[in-house]
Write a structure and sequence with these properties.
By secondary structure, the chain is an alpha/beta fold. The chain has ten helices and twelve strands. β9, α8 and β10 form a beta-alpha-beta unit.
């Protein structure tokens, strides 16, 4: 009898504790064969022809080896790379790890904001050169208006923390169902320029979709306040980086913090590195101990739901890309 397989693709960023993996494998051994891969490497003795579920981030070649795949669970919140992947059949259900990164993502973003308003990039550079000089361009969160563009899990957690500092929060989300918690007003992307014009800080938490690609272009930066602080913790491809560079050099953007860039790793000679008052954190928003248990619990729950025929959590709309 042919037994269908559930495949776990572990790598340096994603894995399950062996005890949790074995518990799942033992619990459902009469239903499915569990297969564990390391760094997308398939041993010669293993066939993935009957793999129906994959947990991890498979390579394009690995997807070709799984023609009967029915479900792909990503370890990341971002799903844009797989939503329209040519090697992922349209009927495959795609789920992500949204909800896992909210707290650590918000803390990382708050660290970036605090660093900008207290001119920490300047002081870091001065420390390296043994210079003692007081900055004169400090800002504050209290009383400032923050436009949070993308009000999902991370965006809402950012707002919750900013409100404790006394900020005014303008939320931009896809649908206007109700005023979100911790937001003072809510808008759709159709009213983005209104939010940009009112915001002292613009925090981009958008996923990368056809609708959001290069959304922050020269016209968007022109719509912002002079001296605005621009923070991108969404996706690098949502920003026209040439337009951002020009906006910083002109003074339109007073400071910028980037956790993500269009090309990653960012090339050593890229002009973003040398912008004044810039902070780049190498796509490290998801680094931290808080995510592991949440993600492990999500994976275990979804594996159980898949086997029991129940709805999967965090299903991605593959047309929208999130």
């Amino acid at each position: 009898m042919i037994v269908n397989k559930i495949v776990f693709g572990f790598d340096q960023e994603f894995s399950l504790p062996s005890a949790e993996y074995e518990q799942l494998a033992q619990r459902f051994k009469d239903h499915y064969e569990f297969v564990q891969l390391d760094a997308n490497t398939v041993p010669n003795s293993v066939s993935l022809e009957n793999a129906v579920a994959f947990i991890g981030a498979p390579s394009a070649e690995l997807l070709k080896k799984m023609p009967n795949l029915r479900w792909l669970q990503l370890p990341s919140a971002g799903a844009n790379h797989f939503a329209h992947h040519p090697n992922l059949a349209k009927e495959v259900t795609l789920t992500n790890s949204s909800g896992v990164f909210g707290v650590i993502g918000a803390e990382h973003t708050l660290a970036l904001i605090l660093a900008l308003i207290r001119e920490i990039p300047l002081y870091v550079k001065q420390t390296e050169r043994h210079l003692w000089h007081e900055g004169d361009r400090c800002l504050q969160i209290d009383g400032s208006t923050f436009g949070i563009i993308g009000y999902g899990d991370i965006g809402s957690e950012i707002a919750h923390r900013l409100k404790a500092f006394g900020a005014r929060v303008l939320a931009v989300k896809r649908n206007l169902s109700r005023l979100p918690e911790d937001a003072d007003a809510v808008y759709t992307l159709a009213d983005l320029d209104t939010v940009l014009n009112e915001s002292d800080f613009v925090v981009n938490v958008l996923p990368l979709t056809p609708e959001t690609k290069n959304l922050f272009d020269a016209k968007r930066f022109a719509a912002m306040k002079d001296g605005v602080q621009f923070i991108n913790v969404g996706r690098g491809g949502t920003v026209d980086e040439r337009a951002l560079i020009d906006a910083v050099h002109s003074g339109k953007v007073g400071g910028t913090a980037l956790d993500v860039t269009a090309e990653e790793p960012l090339p050593e000679n890229h002009p973003l590195w040398d912008l004044p008052n810039v902070l780049i954190t190498s796509h490290s928003l998801g680094v931290g101990p808080g995510k592991y248990k949440r993600r492990n619990d999500l994976v275990a729950k979804n594996v159980t739901n898949f086997i029991m025929g129940k709805p999967l959590k965090n299903q991605v709309n593959r047309e929208l890309g999130y």
